[in-house]
User: Which sequence fits this backbone?
């Protein structure tokens, strides 16, 4: 079973990333520096430290589910994932071929340019889909229309909340999910996002 993770957001509520309990503990020790503005789900996780030689008591720190941190004035708000990411593209498709719907491992999926590169298609989240090797080979240097292959999934640029949900750890608490789903913009395009909203 994987270790629990802590969801880090800007204090305004924009998700940033997942932290290990140890990384969160470092932030918790910097409260005086203003790194943490607020927390939610306090005391959900407890990390134990060393034993005090005088008292014989073991030290510990309680880690919350969610941490809101200060945002520096020059830090842009990342509402959407920018640029192309192969692993994210495959998770965006729900680890399925965008043409035939076959479920595959991340390693078995390939990336297809919807508009082929040789015809001016750029590698972007809107012009790339994950697909099986057979469909990729069959489509070759054609558009889906020319190959008679309908896209089962509409490509989209995910918000950071959607990115963090797609790449989530195995253990996601209801509280963490609540913070993420406030910013799901593309739930209608993917079943798993719609299901997360309904949870």
Assistant:
């Amino acid at each position: 079973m994987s270790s629990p993770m802590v969801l880090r957001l800007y204090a305004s509520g924009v998700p940033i990333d997942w932290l290990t309990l140890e990384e969160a503990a470092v932030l918790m020790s910097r409260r005086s520096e203003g790194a943490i503005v607020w927390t939610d789900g306090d005391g959900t996780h407890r990390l134990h430290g060393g034993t005090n030689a005088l008292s014989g008591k073991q030290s510990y720190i309680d880690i919350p589910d969610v941490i809101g941190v200060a945002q520096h004035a020059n830090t842009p708000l990342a509402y959407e994932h920018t640029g192309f990411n192969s692993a994210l593209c495959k998770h965006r498709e729900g680890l399925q071929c965008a043409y035939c719907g076959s479920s595959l491992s991340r390693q078995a999926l390939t990336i297809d340019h919807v508009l082929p590169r040789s015809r001016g298609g750029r590698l972007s989240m809107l012009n790339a889909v994950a697909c099986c090797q057979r469909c990729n080979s069959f489509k070759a240097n054609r558009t889906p229309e020319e190959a008679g292959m309908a896209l089962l999934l509409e490509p989209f640029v995910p918000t950071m909340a959607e990115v963090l949900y797609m790449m989530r750890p195995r253990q996601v608490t209801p509280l963490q999910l609540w913070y993420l789903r406030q910013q799901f913009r593309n739930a209608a395009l993917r079943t798993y996002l719609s299901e997360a909203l309904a949870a």
In short: The helical segments are 21-28, 86-92, 133-139, 144-147, 160-166, 174-181, 191-198. The longest helix spans residues 21-28. DSSP finds seven helices and eight strands in the chain. The longest strand covers residues 45-51.
